[in-house]
Amino acid sequence: MFNQLHAAARQVSQVVIGKDQQVRLAITCLLAGGHLLLEDLPGVGKTTLAHALAISLGLKFNRVQFTSDLLPADVAGISVYERERNEFVFHPGPIFTQVLLADEINRATPKTQSGLLEAMEEHQVTADGVTRALPEPFFVIATQNPANQVGTFPLPESQLDRFLMCLSLGYPDAAAERALLMGEDRREMLRTLQPAMQPSELAAARRALREIHASNALVSYVQALAQASRQNGLFAEGLSPRAAIALLQAGRAWAALEGRDHVIPEDVQAVLVPVCAHRLRPLKAAHGTALASRDLVLQLQKSVAV
What we know:
- The chain has two domains: 2-201, Rossmann fold (3-Layer(aba) Sandwich), CATH 3.40.50.300; 212-303, Orthogonal Bundle (Helicase, Ruva Protein, domain 3), CATH 1.10.8.80.
- It starts with a helix and ends with a helix.
- The protein has helices at residues 2-15, 20-31, 46-56, 72-76, 110-114, 117-122, 157-160, 174-182, 186-192, 199-208, 216-231, 241-257, 265-276, 290-303, and strands spanning 36-39, 61-65, 77-82, 87-92, 99-103, 124-127, 130-133, 139-144, 165-167.
- By secondary structure, it is of the alpha/beta class.
- It is built from 14 helices and nine strands.
- It is globular and about 70 Å long.
- The protein is 46% helix and 14% strand.
């Protein structure tokens, strides 16, 4: 079943050229049961990555463009009175899908942003006093423009913590950019993509993740990283217990994709920055950039003995 995930990753990498590591991390995030935040400049392939990933994994896909006038009901759905039935009928919003692309999520107001919290955490939506389950799997890929761009509302720490990983695609290298310029249009490529696996196979892979063994020593290493983040004076607040659980789960998913039935420290280190950097705020305001957070997380890793 994990072979199909590798096939899906190869297919996505043919569309999003030169970003094999980010594609692998995105699949790791989905396999671990989390949600993904893509933070980068417009036009570097965030939307293309989300769409290609959904198609390659055989999942239903919806995209919502977040704007300042978007309302929570525009995402979750709304009840409309139907005269023929003499009752209100709920019309599901675009959130009722398997892969939801929340495009430019930080352009929406905090009220609309918070409307995703229940869905991301509980995989359900409550509207008009009725709770409705979301499809499985339910995977949110949110894109976010840099906070210094016009018209953005920064995500609060509570919502950032709902994202298992935060990735940045960055500019392509010269060879990848030339392949983009000389190759087929990405939108045309998306139309010709075929699923590399079925949702049932993905569900089986996620269940198999529970069998990936994490030894006491490995758990102690994860715990030591969390403790160090709280005590080393680099960050305003350290990693929460939920963040430590996320780190261990992402390590399990990375180990499974590597073909191992147990987690080793290198698996945890491979996912440490994408899992932790967006959760940790540098103590010094002068170092308050996302890049600085990543650098400090790497410094944290070096400070903790394996």
